Amino acid sequence: MLMPAIAIRTDDGRFPLEVGRIFCLTTNYRKHAKEMGGTGEEKPSLFMKPWTALLPLKDGEEGEVPIPSYGRELHHEVELVLACLDGKTWAYGVGLDLTLRDVQRELKAKGKPWLLAKGFDRSAPVSGFVHQDLVPDPETLGISLEVNGTVRQKGTPRDMTIGLKEIPRFLAEFSKPRPGDLIFTGTPEGVGPLVPGDRCRAALSVADEPAASLMVRIE
User: Fold this and answer.
1) 178 C-beta neighbours (distance < 10 Å), count
2) What predicted TM-score, i.e. pTM, was given to this entire model?
3) What is the Rg, in whole angstroms, of the alpha carbon atoms belonging to the chain?
């Protein structure tokens, strides 16, 4: 079975990277934790998405994401995504952790895993990725999300509870990062609902300069 691949941009062009595991951090932005009913002091945790959730997109390409029939309330969560190249070298992209919020609330109340809420097909659209050599200071990275032309979310690594340098070490406490691993690093405040017909544009910037983007239409 062929695994999905993402594109890594370097000084010399682009190369494909076959994706392996997909990790996601929870509550890694304090203001988002508060908007979800927390205190903002929660320690981030981890969950995983199956590779079938991945939807790699090129700049200018628009993907389609159908809302699963068993959910009623789809929410957007824009995230900075890390791609592990060799265990020590990383690339940066932007992604969406699309979430069936009504299903997640029900699962949380029952103490059950979130797979049905966050692991459905195409629930993890991602852009192309930028090699770390093209990012002199990762703290200058920025992510944003527009829905139908209106900005809904913005964030930078400075807003994270566990910073970019610490995230690989945080993951390694559970499992050593491997080439092809993706890490969704958490979402800033401003998450909200999406309905059929909505168009989303997520963008990654480096020192306020455009670096990568993705577009999806909700079906």
Assistant:
1) 11
2) 0.96
3) 16
